[in-house]
Amino acid sequence: MPLIFITGGVRSGKSHFAERTAIQHYQAQLGPTKRLIYLASGIALDREMAKRIDRHQADRQAQPVQWLTVEVPYDMAEVLATLQDGDVVLWDCVTTWLTNAFYEGFDSGTPCIDQPGCLENKLLNIKQAILSLLNKDVTFLVVSNELFDEPPYDSDEVELYRRTLGQWHQWFVVIAQEAYEMNYGIVKRWK
Prior knowledge:
The protein has 191 residues and is an alpha/beta fold.
């Protein structure tokens, strides 16, 4: 499985670059079982996020290929287990999914971040699911945001989020065949 990791600043062009790259891989694939899958982790909790989701959906609909969009705000490991040989999969994005993981259960009174071992188990499960893809003929593109140029925050929760995201980025780069960073619409290949 080729894993392609794409990171960069907010609104830097990452998603557009990732979509173009996924389409190129999809069009290069041979065989009747191939699928072009978009794993969307966003939840429209406010108008700004709803607009971003609508824009991403419109962008995909305007493309000359058919995307299968799967909404995955939480149970990513379960969805990854269903991928098939020949699939080209774009996950957009890690930072949104990680935020969802931190606060899953908030509406019932106990977010994951406040439950001992909850976040660690979620991360372990998803890493195992990603590693299992290494044995399949799946092209997996992963999009994330760079949040590390900001000064440290006084919030322990925000710093835990940044530390967790940074460790996860490093893990992705280690197992990735390709790693890119986007800034101002400019692509830099690191690996």
